[in-house]
Amino acid sequence: MIKKLVRFSKDLEKFYVGMHKSAIFKENSEIDDFFMIITFSELYGIENPYSLYTLEMLPALMPRFHRWHQKVGLKHSFFENFPCSCCC
Amino acid sequence: MNAVWLMLIGFAAFAFGWFVYSRFYASKVLELDDKFVTPAHEFRDEVDFVPANKFVLWGHHFTAVAGAAPIVGPAIAVQWGWLPAFLWVVIGTIAFAGIHDMSALWASVRNEGKSIGTICTRFVGSKVGQLFMVVIFLVLLMVNGAFGVIIAKESVEQATTIIPAWGAVAIALIMGQCIYKLKLPLIPVTIVAVIALYALVPLGVAVPVSLPDSLFGLSQNAQWVIILYIYAGIASILPVWALLQPRDYVNGIQLFVGLILLYASILIVSPNIAAPTFIPAVTDTPGGWHIIVPVLFITVACGAISGFHGIVSSGTTSKQVDKMKDVRFVGYLGAMGEGSLSLATIIACVAGLSLVNADLNVASWAELYKGGVASFVKGGGAIIYEGLGIPKEASATLLSLMVILFAATTMDAGIRLQRYIIQEWGDIYNISFLRGKGIATIVAVATSFAISINGVSDGKVAIWPLFGATNQLLASLTLMVVGVILLRSRKFSGSLVALVPMSFILIMSFWGALIKLGDYFRAENYLLTVLNAIVIVVTLLVVLSALKVIGEILAKKKAEA
């Protein structure tokens, strides 16, 4: 019974995801591309044209940053000048 | 006659189609063999090409092809009596739609999951393939144009549907957030969403919403059309996970629930048929038609055969087929699903309506039957009320909601697909401003809106016969491509299974399009006249090219003999 339920749940998930998988993948990759441009431009010393907007995005990005540093095994942010707001 | 007989005969015929006819076609002509490696395995990328469980894939295919058309078409077509509509839906589903959908899916699976337009380019010629794309664009344009008017009309006539119909948008938006942002499991979210959707039905009945009779000189219908296109424009540029995906999913579940409720109620109530068997000509009809041939065939539209199914079959479904033998299950049964929806509509109109209107009988039918979605909603609502005891208003709202949600999800997806084609044209023909998402969306919305608002002026779905004709012309062109492929594979007698229905539907829809050309011109509706003329010319070009290829193949065969 439980096995059947699990299978049904998996099939239902396939039904949910299937039709729009490619569009979601495309949108995700566009966001990733955008992120790459921003990251690499700063890495190579090119001024980030979106820095002002990145600053505005900080509140939204903070929880993700917190999840990330915990996931990689760091109790606190390892940037001295950039503490994690969730741990302070 | 009792409507249950209609249902049983219909199901028996569908069973014959599934167990005998499709099996013969699949094994003897298409030679479906599981040893063939499908594109889902060959090009597996976990995005577009993924082998899927055949039941899941069937669910996808069925919900993607089911729109408002299998309801609207038969609801108008029963004006000629129940027999012609019933026969065309049943025979059309078994020998036309099932074969068309299965063949389109097969052709695409055999050709690396390519679209039917590309396959046409490969087997008939590259210029013909480009013309094929024009027909596909026109079908999408007409789908959006026609459905815009249908939703607007339904919103005015069934004010109780407004809250649940727009509530469904809110539910889908919340569902998208729950699944992708809050990472909640799917099953509980589904249960809550479906309960919320049905809970909105009694709320809608209690609080009907209607717009002012006239605003800046615009009728209620025109106001709804404007609101709908603003919504469709926004919906088509939102991320798919935010609205379109959960909306399609909830709608799919609602479709299965609606069909089960309707058929269960028909069995319990077993209503008598109020319509006459056959009326050869009608004097006052919604489309302004008088004769049964060829108009019946283009009026029923997707209820029997639809070119739109070929776009879906070769667009997304073919890339997910796990085994070659699944082609019969998914393609043929997908068409059967749509046929069963049409059959339910016919029963709701010819039998259910007599439960509401005591005067509706064989004698008064031609005078009292008005046709259109409203008949399905009232008739079906009455059957559900008698059968399951769901209050009349609520059951009518439930069915009206089914129509609106179908039409709306198809419209959302249609505008998005239209946008993709416009962007693609921008790439092919190097027109830079068409490549942008914003401009392409505006062009898609504006062209469809122009057609919808054109239909609103005379209070009818003016585009409907043209949509039916173009959609079926596309279906016949798809069958023609399949015929060419079979002839090239030297299956001369087997190709008749595709070429005979192709010839019939091509003649009927072409004839219908010609009659309608004169009608639009006389009515001084120049927009639809031009569109109709384009459809006729493009079809002629594609048919002539295909006939040339067929002629060459047959001449070669003769020379060899």
Write up what this structure looks like.
The complex is a heterodimer of chains A (88) and B (561). Chain A is mostly helical and 88 residues long. Helices cover 69% and strands 0% of the residues of chain A. Chain A is flat and about 55 Å long. Chain B is built from 22 helices and two strands. Chain A binds chain B through residues 9, 11-25, 27, and chain B through 47-48, 50, 52-53, 55-57, 59-60, 63-64, 179, 185-187, 190, 239-241, 244-246, 248-249, 252, 316, 320.
Q: What's a concise summary of this model?
A:
Helix content of chain A is 69%, strand content 0%. Chain A has 88 residues and is an all-alpha fold.
What descriptors fit this protein?
heterodimer; A: 88 residues; mainly alpha; 69% helix; flat; B: 561 residues; two-stranded antiparallel sheet; 1% strand; globular
- Helical residues, percent of chain B: over 70%
Q: What is the end-to-end distance of chain B?
A: 55 Å
Number of strands of chain B: 2
Stretches with pLDDT under 50, minimum 5 residues of chain B: none
Q: Give, in order, the helices and strands of chain A.
A: HHH
Largest sheet of chain A at a glance? Answer: none
> What's the oligomerization state?
heterodimer
Name the pair of protein chains with the most residues at their interface, and give those residue counts: A-B, 17 and 28 residues
What's the average pLDDT of chain B?
89
The global form of chain B is globular
| Strand order, sheet with most strands of chain B | 1-2
Rough outline of chain A = flat
Distance between the termini of chain A: 47 Å
Outline the biggest β-sheet of chain B.
2 strands, antiparallel
